[in-house]
Batch of 4 targets.
Target 1
Amino acid sequence: MKYTSLSLFLALLCPVMIFSQQETPKFTLSGYVKDASSGETLIGAYVVAKPADDPETASPPYAITNEYGFYSMTIPEGNYTVIASYVQSTSEVQQLSLQENTRLNLSVQTSQVLKEVVITDKREDGNVTGSEMGKFDLKPSEVENIPVLFGEADILKTLQLLPGIQSAGEGNAGFYVRGGGPDQNLILLDEAVVYNSGHLFGFFSIFNSDAIKNTSLIKGGMPAEFGGRLSSVLDISMKDGNEKEWHGKGGIGLISSKLTLEGPLVKDKSSLMLSGRRTYIDVLMKPFVAGTGAEGSGYYFYDFNAKASYRFSDKDRIYLSGYFGRDVFTYNSDDSDFNLNIPWGNATTTLRWNHLFSDKLFMNAYAIYNDYQFEVGAGQEDLRFSLFSGIRDYNAATDFYFFPGNNHNLKFGANYTYHRFTPGALSLQADDVQIDPDDLRNKFAHEAAIYIQDEFDWKERWRFNFGLRGSFFRQMGPYVYKPSASADSVSFDKGEPVQDYFGLEPRASSRFQINEQSSLKASVAVTNQYIHLVTNSGSTLPTDIWVPSSRVVEPQRGIQYALGYFRNLAKNKYETSVEVYYKDLQNQIEFNQYYIPELSSEIEKDFVFGDGESYGVELFLKKRTGRLNGWIGYTWSRTFRTFKDLNQGKEFPARYDRRHDLSVVAIYELHDRWTVSGTFVYGSGIAFTLPESYYFINSQLALNYGEINSARLKPYHRADISATLHGKKDKKFRSDWVFSIYNVYNRKNPYIIYLDYDGNLFRGDAKVTPKQISLFPIIPSISWNFKF
């Protein structure tokens, strides 16, 4: 009887024990996070689910919205307080009893002006807890507070104030990242590749900040979803447009004006954004060229952004966006009948479809057209020449986002691009005679890739991101240069395969959480680059060209290692980080030392090939909140190149090798009406090559140059300040006045070095002295910005 009772007790207890060992059921919470005032989806918003029975937990479940504002997390059944937050926003808080898979769309109010300026869109400890290395997110509102040249706010120039990112020169919007060349930066505008990001010969970028929603730069640990470049990814998203009501924004500056309009086509379902900008330098210069014999000369640029979207349901939405911009420089001489015309610019179109298969599977599919052209035409009525180069792409791709569990994100996809290159077509017309390369000038290529990447937490302290990318490139006919003993070149029919290349690109990054305030991060990335921008630094013509890999031109290959320590101080009020990196580069390309443009399609014969390396240390300190905020960034780095056919095969510093690079940014909110800011930059002088001696051949002066880049320009440094007077708040209209001074203490920074001769060259008693030309002195500016 005793054992029977015990057996009966155990039989009743076992189901209870089994049930108690089972895990609490889990369900998926997903949805979109939007701006409450405009209905626009928010990138990088945080959604936190705090358990009702433990609201003070140090590590509640959370998710971050993707590029289209979608989030997903799988968490245990229960009661939660769900909080959505975003930069300079009022968080939305909702109570939720999670008992099944739930779709919860959230809205946050971002239009409210906060008393304290916040200069980050991450959660307070996002820089410590995330696995990303060398990633910066930038909002247009941050750009507006930075002093700029001629009052023209510029995203790319703001990025140059961050460690590891160097300016391409005085006033230039181009940039170098960790010792990589300008072509090694993948620049995307709504997924479309941008091949030239500069206006006014690079002094301004093509990106109108009023049309931009978000900017992300990745300079280390590049995820597997991105490829085709060695150094960095600059991913820029245009505004979707306001779904609720029509609004406008614009500005009038010293050299350009701009206007942006956005509003609903169908309220709460579709939106439209239109943004245009044009400079009026040509109009301002007319009084100065009048009577000089150069009437009709001038320069101007313009650009236009447009984007439309339509939401069929929470599961389907389509976007159509585009960009078109042109620079036009003209010179006309009435005296000599000489004229010069230089137009160039980009055009892109992106069609996207977002589809939600389930609460855990999200898809983005897109088709893209983009075109870049650069042309120089010059001469007189009876003798003219023109130089044309360009690249045109047709691209299709799809990306899948899968969320298998909380803090576990899987992304995979594929893409294909058809390239058409015109790597430099030079033609000449004399009277009725036309000298023009034939159709062999164009080159064609197919580029494709597949990838997968998995980001997940392991235990409490580790977070990993592993990825693998497989890439393929095929150069097609009609032509490729093939140097050999028996033939100088070989021709192919259009469409015939010329050369195939394959590449495997593993990527990995990790984060170890030391404590709540600090973490260690490491990354390694292998990359391949199949198209190349070849620069002839010795030419005064705009002859930089894009060329594909071929039998002669092998793909560039790179591998980058990075290690970083990240720590927040004073309850996340300050961010600090130290990163070290090493980058090994192979198959780097340059023109040979004696290249000049010629009437030939065999451009590969003028290339030389070599390797490179770069390494450095980056220090960063940022004050995130308060009336006074900003950052200090410092980089110590070295960048070298080794070419068998250059510099007698000896190693030489790259032109953008810069030992020291320092940036200081400070923004101070005096009160609700006035905000003042200032920047200071310092950089070691860039490397260049000086002639060591000169001599005459048949009465022609010849220069004997020393080792490549063995000389240095003077160090570059400059301070800028600005003050913004904010207009009084009004429900319908608000305007700001921005006063700025560029180069406050009038530093004469070197821009061009030339040789000055004092004496008689033929007698040999001349003294040759290198002298510099400086570009921008102290420049005050004023601009008026408005919203309605």
Target 2
Amino acid sequence: MKLQKQKPRQTLNPAFRRQRPSRTEINSFKSNLLTLIGKVDETESEEHVKNLVRDFLRDTYYKNINEVNTKGRQDLAIYTGKTNESKVGVIIEAKRPINKGEWFKGDNANCKAIQELVLYYLRERITHKNIDIKYLIATNIYEWCIIEASYFDNLFAKDKDFVKQFQEFENKQKVSTDTFLFYNDIAKPFIENSADVIPCAYFDIREYDKALRNNDKKEDTNLISLVKILSPSHLLRVELADDSNSLKESFYKELLHIIGLEERKEGGKYIIDRKKEGQRNEGSLIENTINILDTEDPLHKIPDLSLYGTTREERLYNIALELCITWINRILFLKLLEGQLQNYHQKDPEYLFLNSEIIPNYDELHKLFHQVLAKTLKERTAAITEKYKRVPYLNSSLFDISKLEDQTIKINSLDNSFNLELISSTVLKENKKKNQGLKALDYLFRFLNAFDFSSEGGEEIQEDENRTLINASVLGKVFEKINGYKDGSIFTPGFITMYMCRQAIRAAVVQKFKDKHQWKVESIKDLRNFLKDRRSTKEILEDNALINSLHLCDPAVGSGHFLVSSLNEIIAIKSELGLFADKTGDTLSDYQIVIAQDELIVTDRSGNDFKYEIKNGKPLSNEMQRLQKALFNEKQTIIENCLFGVDINPNSVKICGLRLWIELLKNAYYKDDTNFQELETLPNIDINIKCNNSLISRFALDADLSKALKSIKYNVEAYRGFVNDYKNEKSREVKRGLEKIIDGIKSDFRTEINKNDPKNTRLRKISGDLFNLLNQTKMFELEPKEKKIFKEKKEKLEEAINKLANEIKEIENNAAFKNAF
């Protein structure tokens, strides 16, 4: 048996590796580790050593949380609970630093330290039936070897002959009960004859002496992996405190306050609604918007007001909410963009633009939306170009004036003069101390700046412990809740979307290859073996195209969580199959792409997280540029061709589009052909997300569409061509033209298919029957019995006509259906 030594960071959970430790955690670790090293006396006993290790672990991580103490003959154990009555989670064997004879040499695991861990593990696993052991640790204070318990389970606990010998030894059935017999005559020969290679995290704290004793905070980043690998999150697999989808309550509640909403419990469920009268502030976004809508009274411009409620108050609120969600969507997208630019450019303050100094009022915010983000660099005026020279053009239809804005008001109509009082739990503590209200827009910017939007995490230290990381998943959950204000929304947890997408998509990919090649494959692992010989550029492009032919539709898409999980899963599958490649079909095999905590994580062969950076006006390397482009292009291809969503709520459709744009934004790259001055633009992916009621179909599933297709001006291929043109069109004028063509084709198709719609056909027949009944010539007065039959027929036909007419009207008037096909 050999040990495969790995650096600590290589063995950490990828999601945990990206979490930032706080400055307090780093300082505590350094202080306690220096204390540990300072107390080392190599002449002291092993008992002295294990006491030092216990104190270090307890004081740094486990005090008042987990018991760290001996158990029987075990030197140390970290228990899963606060007392030694709980189960052992980690077994530790401590050796004196000078005891070289019992320590492993090189990669050879056959030493007493490991043999003792084997005995203690089997006592826990076999004798005490403990299935909660996570790790085994051997340490001589300086050197640490951390082995995942599952390797011991597979090698030792599942070997029947070895377990039999262990049990005979425990039952005193051997020639001696001395542990020397177990170590020398049972464990040693077994380990010697085993060809297994067991990975282990290995480090020597003497190699980190400079970082430990240096006052330069930059050196502390070298300690991050050590801080994490001995923590409960790793050794006991305690649930990560910063799940990518965990809701940040402070962020959520204060954002609601700024918008003018609140969460409250009604009828056993939590709903989000407008603040109650007496608690409303006219400076909040929604109250400001309602006041302007009420004053300017543009509601008559909306074609179907019934979509927004029955009373004027209800309509004003729902229209204002939709407008506010549109505006907040844009602002949060820009906040993530600002954080991304900061990441790319080593925190250069020149790339900060979302603050009150640059955007002092709603008029300037309107300019940012529509004169900066909605226009190419060449289209911008000289003044705009100078002021916003660091803000890229992205071609996102998120910054086109929406239909509702066109019919009602835009954000520059809002009143800038109102102050908004701070929520009692505000993150802006200094302003709260001064009892200082703020202009609403200034409040929003200061609030957002109190959180960290700069990345999805990384090997950095969180210097300001109050700046919580906010990522796209958290925003999705926030808006899912806001959007479900009427009946309490349910945000599907990440572990559920991950599991469902993994099971469904992997099975679908395997089936695709089975159908095409008639291979006998049942899993991705089987498929990987078949694909290892298909490595020509042509074959790689063909195999990618086959996976890209998948079509996934979420019929109640909400914030787009399932679509994002599907996107991540498809890319991870391509990486696992060796198919992740650039546009030319050249694979990027030096990188591993996995999903952890519902996040896509890209690492190189050394386990280093991939990070795209610009220095001196260009990416740090050509390979970095190639990988970033490949990630962007893969995401764009999958989003455009594979992912579709439907939701009855128009706000959900907007939020879902935003989430998909954000996923692309994560891998936006500076284009080579602009000398790395311009970011690659985002496609118009909103066309894939439809506002619709997926429970209602206008046409039968088996309806014959061939006649309708022959009768309209364009065929399906032409329609698809227009849709593809729309997705990548940058000109607003051309986009509007394409929208008209696409809407015209859909309208023609609906008209043609309507002629053969079974409901309409039956309605025409029944109407004809009624007409004939009412207009038939009567030569004689009807007898009472005949009058009764006539009346019953008439009423039956009228009832059938009314029922069919209402069904057809319900479908036609369904707001969601207007965007169908």
Target 3
Amino acid sequence: MIGICGSAVAESDQRRGVYDLAEMASHRAPGACSIADAPEAVRAANAARLAANNPAINEQDFARVADHIDRESFHLLTPRQRDIFVYMVDNKDEVVGKGHMCFAPDTPLRVVQAFDRLLQGASFNQIDRWPSTAVQAGPLAQGDPTTLTYSYAPDGTFVPNLIGVSGTNDLNSWLDGIYSGNTAAWQAEFDGAFDDWEVLIGTDYIFEPNDDGSQLNTLPGEVGMRGDVRIASIFIDGNSGTLAYNNFPPDGDMVFDSGDSFYNNAPTSPLGFRNVIRHEHGHGLGMLHVCPINQTILMEPFISFAFDGPQLDDVLNGQRHYGDSYEDNDSPDMAFGLGTLSGPELRADIASTDSQTDVDYYAFTVNAPTAVAVTATPFGLTYESVQQDAACSGGIFFDSLNISDLAVEIIAPDGVTVLASSNVAPIGAAETANATLLSPGTYFAKVIPTGTIDNVQLYDLTVTIDGAPGFLPASAAINGSLNTQVGAGSQFSFEFEVFENDELVDPASVRVLFSYDDSVPFEEGLIESLGGGQFRATLPGAKCPAMPRVFVEFVGSTSGVLTLPPAGASGPLLFSIDSQVVIASENFETDGGFTVTNDASLTDGGWDRGVPANGFRGDPPVDFDGSGSCWLTDNVAGNSDVDGGTTTLTSPAYDLSRGGTISYAYWIDDGPGNLVGDALTVQVATDSAGTNWQTVRIHDNALPDWEQTFITIDGALASSTVRIRFLATDGDPQGVVEAAIDALVVSANRCDAAAGTDCNNNFALDDDEIALGLAEDCQPNGIIDSCDIDGGEPDDNMNGIPDSCEVIGSCPGDVNGDGETTTGDITLTVSNLGAGSPGAQGTPGDANGDGVTTTSDITLIVSNLGCMVP
């Protein structure tokens, strides 16, 4: 937890709290919010104690280190510390750049400075970051988010001589002794320290419960074997002086001084212990000590009681290496989701552009036309920041507010189109872009660093409803998801809402227009007002392979004619007409012909069929369709996840030679919601032997819920022996993956424009029609078709009139059946305007055969006036 002088900050406020703390810490009066005695007074008293108790200097030892420490400082060291210092000087080439030590508050300043001058390996406050980890093969570079594992070395593990001391690990027995045998209590302090870093910078942490006890500082982290960061303790120098040391990446091992009484009050007053852990892991992230020493920065060489957790400079340090906690959000498809803008604002606090080229994307959703403002507010302070020298001072100041001049953009749902942008405010000032979003959807806020300084710039981001949007025209949006797959011959409908916004819309002006053929003009469908600006559009059935084009039109009192979609006829809604037959529908009360295979490395979690056991470990509590059973991984309560490899569920072969769809419900979750390397992969093969599997879906977003999706089988995937399989893979041995499948439906296409013609008007392609090789659609459409069927046939399509596919020589528009098209047909049509319904047969005056008598029928009659049967 982050707080000021030990006061707690609610977890939901952690990101914000660190900035407030850093700002206050940078202006804190010397000694304020400190331990009871002023630090310098404590150090002076202890220096006198050390000088009184220390034996005389070994002149031979001092001669070896005289270039690195003065006589008075060397005299202040205990005999153990002198041995360590001499070792480090003698082995300077191997020691420098490997790690850093931190010191108790009572350690004399000149002693700390002498050690730090030996260890300081760079002129800035960073050293190299992690290039790879146990769960990330790398290479990882500046700004890449990073996942680290950590483990506790078992007692007895050898800790080699890196700083002049070595020994065997006693961490567990040492801390168990301090915490009265409560192992969970002291381990919680480490968990919390890693959580504090995780919430502030782009790092994630996974506890590795295994540690093989191999020698520290020698082997990299390995899943199931040991952590990237291994934690141990040995006797270093006892009370005062060194509290702990930590290596730099790619060795993050942390070693405490189990002989120091500094830790004895940790169970009741844990602040010092917490800050040691956080400080040491700062080194394990690639951070060096900083100056000045005024109790404002975690990475100062002394452990401070003046604050709780990382401060502003520490956050800058970490985000420069690993990005912020919203990473990896460098593109629209990786944008960090802020949620739906239903309240006053959405926020992303303590974010940053971690380099001159780092851009950040955030996704946000609006459910209605909305004027929005996106604001990036840089923050930072000017504070002293120098490399350590003898006095740890130098008057050099770092201005963290004015690193990059930020620009912001608002981007359309396509992830490309810039709707608004702003880069007019001076560096260090907030930048705001404003846009009116006319349609509901998910949009993007983009933050862009400008300038030439390659460094980290902190900022807060807000997305707010703009209080002064100006005129907002009327708009419309589809309600819910739009089903664009329509069955042949069936009328179809969709609902939409019209938003008046800053003008009025006459409900009578709302209409839907459609065309089933590029060569046919748009005509009107049926509109039903549902009240409250809600409407339902209904369109007549069409035969496959038609591709209906549809748009909605309405009139605003100020804007005039408006459309949904905004492009209207030039960019309409597109529907697909097809005739499909369900050839398999599986609720998995039986196995459905599915089979299970497991790879050799799988140790547990194979596919199983049954009623879910509801083991509360990320597995589904019930099946999807309510029938009871489904396929799921290892249907037992408790440890039911996939372990060690892949389990595969394979279907029988289906005849989808003309294409079709396979729909299914799936479950993929892991309990914590972090699928690292785990996935449910879906593959399709076109041969019954399954030798040419192709991946068509990868479900790797952990959600504690059933989801539905479908796969379109067409082109190269169409075959008479299509098979589908589901592979549940445990790619992270330390993770959990639970998968399930239910409600699988296989639908085969029965409409193929290239194969023949539906001349019997049953809205499907029949084998007898294909055999005849018919080339024209004999569905009555009000125009003369050149049909391959000759001779006078009866009224097979039952539309009440003879047409060209039945009686040779009939006239289009002859609705009264007298053999010619005259004004009498117009009279009959006018007297029946509005009669019928889409798809109806025998409607009086219906010249074009769509089932409804409209002015379109009059237009057809007029264009054929004078036609007579010979």
Target 4
Amino acid sequence: MRRALRWGGYLAALVMVLLLLVYGFLRGGAPRLDGELRLKGLAAEVRVTRDALGVPSIAAQQRLDAIRALGFLHAQDRFFQMDLMRRLAAGELSELVGGAAVDFDKRHRLFRLRAVARDVLAHATPEQRAGLAAYSEGVNAGLKALGTWPFEYGLLMTRPRPWQPEDSILVVHAMYFQLQSPEDRHESQLALMRDLMPPAMFRFLTAPGTQWDAPVQGKPIETPPIPGADVADLRKRAPTKLGFLDSRDDAGADREYPAGMIGSNNWAVSAEHSSTGAALLANDMHLGIRVPNTWYRAQWTYPGKAGPVALTGVTLPGVPAMVVGSNGHVAWGYTNSYGDWSDLVLLHLDPADPDRYQTAEGWQRFTHHAEIIHVKGGKDVSFDIKDTVWGPVLDQDHAGVIRAVHWMAADPAGTNLELEHMEDAQDVREAMAVANRAGMPEQNFVAADAQGHVAWTIAGRIPVRAGFDPAVPSYWDKPGTGWVGWLDPAKYPRVVDPADGRLWSANARVVEGPMLALIGDGGYDLGARAGQIRDDLRAKDRFTSADMLAIQLDDRALFLARWRSLLLRVLNPQRVADHPERAAFRQAVEEWGGRAAVDSVGYRLVREFRSAVTAAAVAPLFADCTKAAPHCDYHGLSQLEGPVWALISQQPANLLDPAYKSWDALLLAAVDQVAARAAAEPGIGAYTWGAHNTVHLTHPLSGAVPFLSRFLDMAPVQLPGDSNMPRVQGEDFGASERMVVSPGHETEGILEMPTGQSGWPLSPYYRNSEPDWEQGKPTPFLPGAAQHTLVFEPGK
């Protein structure tokens, strides 16, 4: 016993020493908040203050000094995040985390984006290169000024690699990966269905819109006619009777996110409808959320050529620019456009030499790039990339045809640093000109100015296509076929000062006709969310910042209201009698509250009923397609609500799975499937939406080091909201920021975000922004009173 106690004491002492070492290492990573520091390269003193949330305000005498200081702050607070972003884009994660990332790196290395970033840098203007160099030097100075490396490198037992100017371009490329699919799954899905389905069935299932469409310009798109028995007759086939799919399954699923969610909203009202006398802008960009948050709040000021420059908003760690915010004259924000920004190119191979492919100039050999992925703790992995004049070879289609991919991010002309000129924009027209020149992931750009004007356009470069149908994979080996240039900014789609003074975008179609043809369709979201925002904006004549925040937090289940009515009709008194489970089901649906509220059982039941009906009604129509190509299914069709509702409304006998005697039987089976699922878990009384919609915001390393998860992650919390409503909220997906601002009236603005400013776990700013974000409590747009002051002096 004495020996055991003695060894127990030794072990306890060892654990204490290790904990002290870990704590000491963590303490050494503390960002510098106060005092004076020498910063090489500065032209004059820079003063940085921080408020109670840790938001920095940078006061400089010139832009380069402000950018250099921003780089220092980004490195001190978020270097590991920046490192992951550049490595993700370049396909270099394995060098940091080991062999588990090799397949991920191969997928990303395919586009050789580090080489693209170097090309972008080489073609940047001297002023832009100077800005990237100043920022990069600031980053490395900030990293060096830490007492120890950021704690993540201690856990990974490796040292951080210095920042290079090209790395900032790679961070932009990382956002391309997050916002666009380089494999163009939407285009690939359409091609599969076109080739494997009867034309009438293809048209029915792939209409580009529905009655829910809510474009700023244009009308809803009608669902095509239901195919008759001469096209398809399921009654002559074997029953399918698909089981209930997971409750996270959504008819509009985007498989980039496990919960099948698409988000991001922005809108603006003109001065006539604003309480400030200037136009008023709201923006909430929805992304996958981790710890720390994607964005970093900041403000910087410096004397400009036309007067003082004062920028406030959110930055992207790794990039020396204000991404979203206000300069006092113009405020701007984004939603992902879901236009068509990549194309799959079919290749004719030379029968006599499979290393050659056909081009408009004749046969040409593939270019081979021997890539090496360095793997931490393992052997290097070498692989060959076959490249064409249009882009790398991606895969082969269902017919065995080799395909290359032409993707905006992999074209050096698709990325540039023009966004920095937003700092000088004086009105919405100047802001649109900057947005149209900017090389970035293509976004819906909405702007509002101090003169009261509002505008929408596309930010990012738009390709000019010729000679092929961009909706499906095509051959580009004829003269004049492919991307033949870039659209002149003067010809960009634009909407300025609409008659009713209101603009909105929500990942859905915004315009129609020639403007839509320029943007293309990369898989627009269903228009239900956009329509709810439109109607919210039309419900009042004048708006304050609080009114705009209320729209961002709108969790009313308007989209599901008709599904609730249908469900109540299915559960009529005869079907409820002598069925306690159905009776409890109906009561919960009657009392649903009409919102995606955390305590609503009825909302969850209605939502899952819709998913069950969708699976039972539509999946059998894909049976032949799925048999030929297993990845051909309904999940990638964001406009499927139109066909589904047509089927259950018109109830065509020829398209009913013979497993069911009638469409009513199918609907009742869906109810019973959901009821059984609820009963199998905690029981229907506890089957709340919040129990499913529990938000887990985690640090990238907490999964690998579970005992640190409580220390690194945000506490799980049940939150309201869902898809198809303004407050889009999933388990790890939601508003990465909520901003409301009227240019020139920033004191009345709102800017909140999840997690916190700092990526250092011991910082008071690591998680202190989280409560306001969870509760939807307005956080001031402008930084508050200074609590810390750090002064940078020019140094050698």
